[in-house]
Batch of 3 targets.
Target 1
Amino acid sequence: MQNLHSSDPLEATAGASVENNTAPSQPYSEAIAGQGAPRRWPGVLVGVGAGVLLTLVGSQILGGREATPPDAPEPPPAVATQTVTVATAAPATVADTLAINGSVQATDLLTIAPQASGLQIRQILVREGNAVSAGQAIATLDDATLQADLRQAQAQLSVAQAQVTQRQAGLAQSQATLAEAQANLARNQTLADRGAISQQELGSLRTQTITAQESISLSRAEVQSAEAGVRSQQAAIDRLQTQLTQTTVRAPVAGVVAERLATVGDVSAPGSPIVTLIENNQLELAAEVPQTQLDQVAIGAPVTVTSNADRRIQLQGTVQSIDPVVDAATRVATVNITLPPSDLLRPGIFLRGDITTSSRQGLTIPATALQPQPDGTAQLFVLGEGNVVEARTVELGNRIAASGDAVAQVEVLQGLQAGEQVATSGVGFLQDGDVVTVVD
């Protein structure tokens, strides 16, 4: 109990501890008290270290329980970064083609020239590009001279007709004279048979009869000559009337005016055309094909025709003919491709075409799904589970040009399977692994 009142704190603490312990611990407290202060520090350090160790172990246990709570929430789902449209890779007929280039020309280019010559052109009624129908007036010529000639010919016809009337009257008179001479001859023949008149008088009557017959022949010839004069004048009138109709130059067939070659005031001539006309507005593409590729071109093969200068030109033509002559210098032949009527076509414009040489089944997708790469390859984005897109590099085949409402397609040779869906819009902003929203 005295140890409890010791001035040494450690000693007081130790004494209190001994007094509170049970009897078996008494020798230990006495040993501590008997050794003095230097002997008390190891026990204190041991107690403090044990407490720190227990504290650390408890912290680790409690900390581990906090780090892995039994009801931890799942990570939030990925957020879509882009809205896209998709298309399904599907089998389709793919054509193998031969690329060609050429110029547009008229299948039949007609030169319209006046038939009446020596007349001034009074009016030209059409311009380049105008569509005309068969028989439509193209130009008119000055017909004043022809009108005057026609009036003169009509007057001469009247004179000729009067001459015919006069000659017919002379013929009638000659016929009457012959009838009278024949009657006198018959009457005097009876008298001569009776001896009432001499044979000399009878011979004179016979001569008169013969003369009257010859007069009739002459009158008939004169009538025929006068009638021929009438016909000649009528022919002249018909010719002049024909020339008058020719003063209106008309289109022989329907077509489109390609070029106007004359102006008002020019003098007409059969060899001087006024306009050129594309018959039925039928144009063709004259394309040059190397001799080594001619065996790939068949008559009647379809041709897709486009223009680098005008994207509106999307036409379907047909191989019409192949010129039989191959140019000896360039070793190319001309292939003529018929073109459908179009207001966009003009003779002389340059077009390109793809002649179908064969066809087969292939896997196609819209051309808008492709993303060209700097190394020359093509990449697309395939839609996977959870609307996650996967970037793929694909090998391409032929291209199918847009036609009507159908968009341009491209054949995929490797890197894609039928039925897979590919992004067709916004592909330039996509990256591998992006989550997208698919819209119609």
Target 2
Amino acid sequence: MFFFRMIKGAYVRQWKKMLVIAVTVALGASIATAMLNVMLDVGDKINQELKAYGANINVVSRSASVLSNLYEIEGDDEVNVDSYLKEKDVGKIKTIFWAFNITDFAPVMESSVTVNGKKYKAVGTWFNHHLELDTGESVDTGVINLRSWWKIKSGEWINEQSSDLKEVMIGSNFAEKENLSVGAVMTVTGKKGGGDYKVRAVYSSGDAADDTFYMPMSEIQKLSGTEGYVKKIEVSALTTPDNELAVKAAKNPDQLSRAEYDLWYCTAYVSSICYQIQEVIPNSVATAYRQIAESEGEILDKTQLLMTLITILSLIGAALGISNLVTSSVMERAGEIGLMKAVGAKNSQIIFLILTEIFITAIIGAVAGYFMGFGFAQVIGRTVFGSAIDMKGMIAFIVAVLILGVTLIGSLPAIRLMLRLRPSEVLHGR
């Protein structure tokens, strides 16, 4: 009972200092909670942000891949059908182990055509294509999401579900060269035929696509005589940044041990997703756009490092604040501590009393700080990434351990001061 009366008396006499200690701990705990939760969730957030800039995996036929690798060209429409992939196989991408990580995909067919006597490259693709998979599931996919950065200057996207397929979307540079606008009709002639197409939209992409035009896949196939075939498939997938295992597997999966292979195959590395795509699409080679994959890893590493440093600095600040406040508290209670020593109290008993007071205060501050951090994390998620941050249960345990450690470290200078107090000096006012 005496022990608890001492603690109660300390809170009554020094409630302002205890409140400041609790606030200091709460601020440190809130920043640590917010940063750690964001840090653990930031990988998926950054991945999703990068997906807004297009595909990160390219799938072509084996012969087209060899041609590109050896001669650094992509081939042309004169190549036989072995240089193409079958359009009916495109949907198999959604049957791989990491199917749910495939956010969007679209086949692409390019062909040389003539418009008003001039040669251009036309691109055929899916816009919002509906697929019924062999698994019984259905999916809507296409370039509407893969080209989300395009600005539609006039008109609207081609809608495969309701629009006339005799429509095209033209780039801003192409529209200027040919003096075309939405509603105009242009005659397109390919190697196997021609037809009149209405301009559905004028877009600005900021790249080479501004110099060409896009049309439904079925139409470009008719013009080029490649019905049922596609040149490549662009895939956007949520991936895990590469590590040493992923780099090793990307060179040669056969070099992996069974345990390494299972871990790699069951992790959403871009190399494992490419490997699985090649398993389900015959005669295919899937490769990652390395610049995107490497940028993702670098951005993630730097972001996590920044958040780790912020967490460390906030905890250091909390430790310094606790140190000053607890030291000040011990100095104010020097007479009380000297009297306890004089009547026979051991140093260990006095240390236990002071630490109990501080830890009770720290626990109160830590609980308040954790919920404050929960709110801060959601503000960061909504403001920066436009979505909520998933709160991890283990963060509560990590923050509790960190706060207890910071509180103990911050109390050490005060404990050293207390140990040096001599009852005879303190009680005589020296």
Target 3
Amino acid sequence: MRRNLILGGILSSLVLLAALISFVWTPYDHAAMNIPDKLQIPNAQHWFGTDHFGRDMFSMIMVGARTSLAVALLAVGIGMGLGVPLGLAAAARKGSWLDELIMRGNDLVFAFPSLIIAILITAVFGAGAGNAIIAIGIFNIPVFARITRGGALSLWEREFIMAARVAGKSSTRISYEHILPNVANLLIVQGTIQFSLGILAEAGLSYVGLGAQPPTPSWGRMLADAQTMVSFAPHLALIPGFAIILTVLGLNLMGDGLRDWLDPRLRVRRA
């Protein structure tokens, strides 16, 4: 449990640190092209080598981390900010028309993967990081709504909730004062998982040209640019690929560790 949490925290912290440092410093200008230095393998001057335009790969990876984390974080924020209230409302009105409306709406959104939603949004508004955030965020809403509703339903029949009802508290007040704090551990763990999935989704959307647009670096677009050069410049694909793998692995390990740490039943079982 602690091993997963610590290892995941270290990997995630390294990516976050690289993203934060990129705001004030990178070894080279990530957008500066230097054709004579193109396709260099990793060396002392360019730690991760250079791409087909002579741009420094290490600088691009740092700025790409900023792009991926920002898109995933905002998308998860949208999903949690809208999904949690919907889940609380559905649980408080279990079996009512509101509950049915929310859950059937969730089913409708689940029927369309984030990539399809992104294509629809892009067809109307054009490609870009903002539209990728909206697309991934919309897909996250039913995830958090279901998690919140499922956790809340098991609490509504508990004695302390009945006591709050007897005290005259409204369903809305009970939901936010008593239910929400008790499902927060579920939301934290799910938020970590959705964050890692958001990074994968952003990379996938950028790979097909629907994510962040040039000159903003994106790990997914770096992979797309490298696919025709793998045979003679494999580092162009390996480096952003490993960046995605390590980031997602770190977040998943951290989510697994948080789940074990926040769930007392698992702590007792593993003790």
